[in-house]
Amino acid sequence: MDQKGIGLMSDNTPIVQGRGIVKRYGHVTAIDHSDFELRKGEILAVIGDNGAGKSSIVKAICGATIPDEGEILIEGKKVNFTSPIDARNMGIEIVYQQLAMSPALSIADNMFMGREIRKGSFMGKYLRQLDRPAMEKFARDKLSELGLMTVQSINQAVETLSGGQRQGVAVARAAAFASKFIIMDEPTAALGVKESRRVLELIQDVKSRGIPIILISHNMPHVFEVADRIHIHRLGKRLCTVDSKDISMSDAVALMTGAMTPEEAGVAA
Amino acid sequence: MSDTTKSGQDFEAAASRNETVAQFEDTRRGFVGQVQHILHNNPSMVPLTVLVAAILIFGLLLGSKFFSPFAMTLILQQVQIVGIVAAAQSLVILTAGIDLSVGAIMVFSSVIMGQFTFRYGIPTPVAVVCGLAMGTAIGALNGWLVSKVKLPPFIVTLGMWQIVLATNFLYSANETIRSQDIETEASFLQFFGSKFSIGGATFTVGVVFMLLLIIVLAYALKHTAWGRHVYAVGDDPEAAELSGVNVHKTLMSVYMLSGLICAFAGWALIGRIGSVSPTSGQLANIESITAVVIGGISLFGGRGSILGSLFGALIVGVFTLGLRLMGADAQWTFLLIGLLIIAAVAVDQWIRKVSG
């Protein structure tokens, strides 16, 4: 029942720890006493069949849904998020599948949407003027850090960017503001081969900065390329968490679909 | 020297890395593409060009009869009410809504200002504040129905239009308060009609208010977080919410502000026509939408500039006065405005193709 993989645990406290999380919608149990663990500096992929509840468990972690039972600890401290904004205020950033950007607004505007910087002067205090130079500089710096920037165009509308570029901006936004970890929901689902490649590079770039990432994805090659560990979700709970080097892609799919048990795959630990 | 080469290499490394997908540079070429791009960034350029062209053409055709400080400021006076209401309409349309109740709110607010003063003997400034509060309250009701009950803005404001207009007639008993009475007993109601001259140009407080209102709103929309949120909500409310924008608060603020501005328009209306008439301003909703659309604000929300609405209102004013001075049938004005509306939306669709 308990598959926390205690043997692998170091003395480091996990970044996120979910214990016995339950979420019911009427008669449907979306999360059924599931555990969850994200460790320092890792990319944890969450995979599962459609309807297995992988989105539900991640939503519970970022405050988008409030679990009925169980507890969530961030860096060892119990939290009770009531909205994604609570999570964001703690330094948890989410890159949504649908990107959550306003196409007609500029890159800089989008990066600071909902957390704008005002000028410190009279204009900012009383006339609430935004500090555009500061916001633009910050946005430019962050995009440059991730190798995403040619300098002159931070005021370009997001809708003039390609899908990969938009994803890049979304990742840069998350990386700029995340102090704890980033959740990425299907970041390569809508992208072409080349663009997916670039986004995977970005994910590894972000990881190398020490920010752990939860990656929800259907794309097994992408999962196996970047993930350190794989959380396999099945029937509303965590089936097991495996090291991505210890399992083959076909075994992972077999576990995910129930064609194989963790014992058969030799990963039950 | 080694430093320079090193940074040069870094730059090259970064550049080659960018090659795959990360180029933000504009690769479009050609004059048409350039124009499209400029318009995309400055959506009020189109109505401004049309406005300047219209003034020049009528100026050439009519000479000093049209091209005089007097005629120019007359146009301002004639468009002040539509201009103020169009400012309110612009805010709502930027959030991808529409407000059909603007005219009704305007008239009802003016009736409240008048009736409170004359029927109940309330001091005029207090009556004015009551009128402004009523406009804001109706706007708040609109906003609540749109944001919380999630009804389409078109339906909400279509219903509110009828409700407010009917209330207006029932409450006022269809009674007009005469201009002379207001002038002698409550001239503060006509404050927006106060005139002053600079050279041959005649301005009214209403005109100055309209211009200041547009400038303040243009500033707020462009340079404050609230303004950015208005655009984001109009663009994609779900994305805005996920980015941490309080969509409900933004929508409420927009509809309440719209109601308040319409109430100010009601006050300005008393200044313009002198009397308080429950039957005035019937076309304000259509006229304001016309100004906004000609001004290049997208009916789909999130795009356009409030300056465009002012230009849109002025274009209508220039056409109306110009054609009247030429002795043309008033129907020609409507015909041309109709063409402009369709042309403006066609241009909007074209500009949006930049998103390709």
From TrEMBL, chain A:
InterPro entries: AAA+_ATPase (IPR003593), ABC_carbohydrate_import_ATPase (IPR050107), ABC_transporter-like_ATP-bd (IPR003439), P-loop_NTPase (IPR027417). GO terms for molecular function: ATP binding; ATP hydrolysis activity. Residues 16-260 form the ABC transporter domain. Pfam families: ABC_tran. The keyword Nucleotide-binding applies. It comes from the Bacteria. The keyword Nucleotide-binding applies. Keywords: ATP-binding, Nucleotide-binding. This is Mannose ABC transporter ATP-binding protein /fructose ABC transporter ATP-binding protein /ribose ABC transporter ATP-binding protein.
From TrEMBL, chain B:
It is a multi-pass membrane protein. It comes from the Bacteria. InterPro entries: ABC_transp_permease. Keywords: Cell membrane, Membrane, Transmembrane, Transmembrane helix. GO terms for cellular component: plasma membrane. Its main location: membrane. The chain crosses the membrane at residues 45-62, 100-118, 125-145, 151-171, 198-221, 252-271, 283-300, 306-325, 332-351. It is found in: Cell membrane. One of its GO terms (molecular function) is transmembrane transporter activity. Signal peptide: none annotated. The keyword S-adenosyl-L-methionine does not apply. This is Mannose ABC transporter membrane protein /fructose ABC transporter membrane protein /ribose ABC transporter membrane protein. It comes from Shimia abyssi.
